[in-house]
Write a structure and sequence with these properties.
- The complex is a heterodimer of chains A (212) and B (291).
- Chain A has 212 residues and is an all-alpha fold.
- Chain A has one domain: Transmembrane di-heme cytochromes, Chain C (Fumarate Reductase Cytochrome B subunit, Up-down Bundle).
- Chain A has nine helices and two strands; from the N terminus they run βαααααααβαα.
- In chain A, strands 1-2 form a two-stranded antiparallel ribbon.
- In chain A, α2 crosses α5.
- Chain A is elongated, with a radius of gyration of 20 Å.
- The model of chain A has no long low-confidence stretch (mean pLDDT 94).
- With 291 residues, chain B is of the alpha+beta class.
- Chain B contains eight helices and eleven strands.
- Chain B has a four-stranded mixed sheet. In chain B, strands 1-5-6 form a three-stranded antiparallel sheet, with no helix packed on it.
- Classes of the chains: A mainly alpha (212), B alpha+beta (291).
- At the A-B interface, α1, α2, α6 and α8 of A face α3, α7 and α8 of B.
Chain lengths: 212, 291
């Protein structure tokens, strides 16, 4: 084992940004599920008391949105979907069996799809969240609109939470990925296997035959 | 704080059975005969007095409605409407407040266990100490009744004087009504009495007189005798066929199992995939990298 060759994937600011959003997400998901499922009402306890959870949840939501907005501006241009991504998406079954598909750049088709899903969900959650935010904003909206916002908020949250479960699993499944968001680096082998085009961009190497 | 002299039919956000061992409780109803109401507002005063409510003093804007709307401190208000029917002016006065639906939208929407309960006698009552101030009940209500207090961020509405009813008394508004326009008793008796009133009205030139007990919410435990039951909207916008909004039903109904399936599918997929396929590791030998 020689010293492993590493590529920086996320710098410290990006990692802090990610984990701040992740922390907000966990708090929001748990307190949100508490209000969604009667049997999970006890999860309001993560904010102390049920009423405190109702009070704090929307403020944490705004914090998550701001954090995510920063991420959006960092990453949106890496997430434009191209022909290679379509190929990836069509062959997702093969990918899941561990065979990489396509000349993937910084993100693969699945990651890009999830990115845009998160964008849509966050926007839906913020706008509907403002409409249902008592006591501050709700009184300015008609009740039929508040009803639609309540439904929208729940649907967007269900989609986002399901998406994040996939996001977390993908990070667990693809070994070496969590290191990218904790230490900020990935190995050459990781980059070459999962993101070959990004690997070439970062190292200038062809990737096909790399002398050790 | 639920009064245990009563069985509880339903309890908000509570998936398991509430106490219902006693089966002899009769459904009660308050009958408001709009046709004999003189709009004196004694019921408003009695309500405030019994329930110890003190709303802000408003200002006269040239209409009889005072206060202008329900609030956390005004659980019932008289709504006045002037209409012309058959070339005659009619002054339609309706005492507005919680209808105590058999299928309460507020209770369906409430996320806090036990913050809203429905007693076996039909009274729908808010248990303020469990209220978290989310206002979901306001969206759930088909009648636009619950009001969020700015003082404590809890929601209030008419209790049908549950505390009086539980000890065998009639609600304060009923007790005080000087014309007998508000009556209280078993729902059966009130329906029968309303039938007599409707017959009388029909014989006196109101062919469309009728009882307002909307089936869309399973019937209500506050009912109106109306001279124009075919057009309840004349009475300051009383809804013709109120139901819990389909949006609320979807949110509180179908979405829950769908969400559970979604979460379970995502989680199970990950678990089974990891067990079945195993981790995805970069190859030690970089040269094996071929798509």
């Amino acid at each position: 084992m020689s010293r492993e060759k590493l590529i920086v994937r996320y710098n410290a600011a990006e990692r802090i940004n990610h984990w701040l959003v992740a922390l907000c997400f966990v708090l929001l998901a748990l307190s949100g599920l508490a209000l969604f499922y009667p049997a999970f009402f006890w999860l309001t306890g993560i904010f102390g008391t049920p009423q405190l959870a109702r009070i704090v949840h929307p403020f944490v939501g705004v914090l998550m949105f701001v954090g995510f907005l920063r991420q959006f501006f960092r990453y949106w241009h890496h997430n434009l979907i191209n022909a290679e991504d379509i190929k990836w998406m069509k062959s997702v079954g093969s990918v899941l069996r561990g065979h990489e598909v396509g000349d993937t750049g910084k993100y693969n088709g699945g990651q890009k799809g999830l990115f845009w899903l998160m964008c849509v969900c966050l926007l839906a959650l913020l706008t509907s969240g403002i409409v249902i935010w008592r006591p501050y904003f709700s009184p300015s909206f008609p009740i039929p609109l508040i009803r639609v916002a309540l439904l929208t908020h729940a649907v967007a949250a269900v989609l986002l939470i399901s998406g994040i479960i996939i996001h977390i699993y993908a990070a667990i499944w693809v070994k070496g990925t969590i290191r990218a968001m904790v230490e900020g680096v990935v190995t050459y082998g990781w980059a070459k296997k999962h993101h070959p085009r990004w690997f070439r961009e970062m190292t200038g190497q062809s990737g096909a035959k790399e002398p050790r | 704080m639920a009064l245990q002299s009563q069985d509880i039919l339903r309890r908000s956000a509570s998936p398991t059975q509430p106490p219902v061992a006693r089966e002899h409780k009769i459904e009660v109803a308050k009958l408001i005969d709009v046709t004999t109401c003189i709009g004196c507002k004694a019921c408003q005063v009695a309500c405030a007095e019994w329930n110890d409510l003190r709303d802000e003093i408003g200002s006269n804007v040239g209409v009889y409605d005072n206060p202008a709307d329900l609030s956390a401190q005004s659980w019932t208000v008289m709504r006045y409407n002037e209409v012309e029917e058959n070339g005659k002016l009619e002054w339609l006065i309706r005492k507005d407040g919680c209808m105590h639906c058999a299928d309460p939208g507020c209770l369906k929407a409430c996320p806090s266990p036990g913050a809203i309960i429905q007693y076996a006698n039909g009274i729908v009552d808010f248990q303020s100490e469990y209220c978290i101030g989310c206002g979901y009940c306001i969206s759930g209500c088909p009648f636009d009744i619950p009001r969020l207090s700015q003082k404590d961020n809890k929601v209030y509405k008419c209790t049908l004087c549950s505390d009086r009813v539980m000890v065998g008394q009639e609600p304060a508004c009923v007790k005080t009504c000087p014309t007998g326009a508000i009556r209280f008793g078993s729902k059966e008796d009130m329906t029968a009495f309303a039938g007599e009133r409707v017959e009388d009205l029909k014989s006196r030139g109101f062919p469309n007189a009728g009882l307002y007990d909307p089936p869309g919410v399973g019937g209500t435990h506050v009912m109106y005798v109306l001279h124009h039951a075919d057009r309840p909207g004349l009475y300051s916008g009383l809804r013709k066929n109120p139901t819990i909004s389909p949006v609320v039903k979807l949110w509180k109904g179908l979405l829950k199992p769908l969400a559970t399936i979604g979460f379970a599918a995502a989680g199970l997929f990950g678990f089974l995939h990891y067990i079945g396929v195993g981790p995805n590791r970069p190859d030690d030998d970089d040269e094996e990298d071929q798509a």
